[in-house]
Write a sequence for this structure.
């Protein structure tokens, strides 16, 4: 049963009204400027926090809202419907606090978690490398113990929030001979252990800071090592959540495209009639709605499993694979309905298409998600190399 509770419906309504009034008017201008800077990001996050954004995954004892996964999914979808870039920024920042809450040392939690409630401190998760994307176990960034510090060397790429982050949880190998069991997360605080970042420019999500991070003999205190050897498993656990949330994000984008297309089809006239009266326009809108509803159900099914403490590996992958590609098809139809105006940045549908297309890649491509689903339901790996 994925019906919203009375509280969830009220939250959804209040959030939508707020976003339409306070956030929607600035989106187009900000997207044209490119990646948000730290100051603007903090200002926006502070506006969103009263609804449960940023701290939704944190328990109340740490100052969080302690929302369930489905409620967090509602927040993500509603924000993505208005501004997918900001939805990405907030989710990744939330993921940083989630990992700290799950795996941080008592000292780290006591020192850093209070910063979550201020909205001032931005975090990121640095997992992907130039030669280790979907193949997480092939991470090459190393951490070598030297006295009471670890020396980290390596490059991380396509790191969301990387250029504005105050700190990163970076996945490294401390012992290559152990393979995936040699992977661990380190907390790297930029002011204590400096690292450099270079902004990467993308097809879509243009306000979402995305960077290459370089760690050159980066000295990190020994106590910043989190739960040695658990890096791979914690990454997979995060992906179970994040892939479902990407599905919710794309559902929000697709819903925005539907809303824009319905309005345009009602207002635009040709041959003396609203184009919404044309059968093929109606067919496209019906197809858009059907695919978006399916993507939403798959995403919230995966989030529901997480709320119940059950495994959601293939369900989250299926949600991510379907909802992202469905959003690409839906936003493409939205452009078609808008005709030539769909190609213009005077209307938002071209942005919706770029944003949706961009989300088919992160957290594992569509093809990787299908391999995960196939492996889990068949019990057979699609490929095994000796």
């Amino acid at each position: 049963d994925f019906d919203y509770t009375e509280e969830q419906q009220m939250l959804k309504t209040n959030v939508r009204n707020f976003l339409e009034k306070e956030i929607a008017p600035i989106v187009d201008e900000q997207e044209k400027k490119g990646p948000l800077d730290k100051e603007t990001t903090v200002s926006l996050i502070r506006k969103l926090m009263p609804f449960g954004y940023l701290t939704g995954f944190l328990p109340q004892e740490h100052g969080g809202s302690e929302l369930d996964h489905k409620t967090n999914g509602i927040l993500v979808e509603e924000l993505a419907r208005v501004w997918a870039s900001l939805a990405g920024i907030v989710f990744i920042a939330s993921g940083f606090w989630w990992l700290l809450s799950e795996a941080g040392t008592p000292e780290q939690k006591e020192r850093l978690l209070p910063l979550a409630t201020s909205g001032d401190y931005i975090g990121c998760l640095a997992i992907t490398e130039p030669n280790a994307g979907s193949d997480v176990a092939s991470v090459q960034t190393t951490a070598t113990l030297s006295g009471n510090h670890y020396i980290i060397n390596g490059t991380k790429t396509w790191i969301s929030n990387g250029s504005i982050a105050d700190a990163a949880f970076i996945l490294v190998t401390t012992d290559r001979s152990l393979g995936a069991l040699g992977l661990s997360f380190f907390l790297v605080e930029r002011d204590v252990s400096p690292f450099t970042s270079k902004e990467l420019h993308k097809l879509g999500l243009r306000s979402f800071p995305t960077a290459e991070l370089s760690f050159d003999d980066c000295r990190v205190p020994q106590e910043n090592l989190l739960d040695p050897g658990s890096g791979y498993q914690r990454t997979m656990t995060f992906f179970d959540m994040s892939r479902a949330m990407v599905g919710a994000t794309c559902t929000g984008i697709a819903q925005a495209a539907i809303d824009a297309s319905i309005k345009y089809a009602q207002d635009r006239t040709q041959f003396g009639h609203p184009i919404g009266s044309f059968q093929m326009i109606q067919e496209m809108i019906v197809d858009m709605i059907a695919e978006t509803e399916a993507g939403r159900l798959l995403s919230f099914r995966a989030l529901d499993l997480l709320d119940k403490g059950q495994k959601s590996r293939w369900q989250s992958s299926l949600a991510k694979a379907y909802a992202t590609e469905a959003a690409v098809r839906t936003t493409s139809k939205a452009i078609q309905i808008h005709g030539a105006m769909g190609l213009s940045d005077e209307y938002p549908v071209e942005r919706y298409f770029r944003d949706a297309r961009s989300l088919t890649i992160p957290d594992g491509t569509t093809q990787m998600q299908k391999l995960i689903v196939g492996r889990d339901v068949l019990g057979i790996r699609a490929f095994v190399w000796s």
Q: What stands out?
A: The mean pLDDT is 96. Residues 231-267 form the longest helix (37 residues).
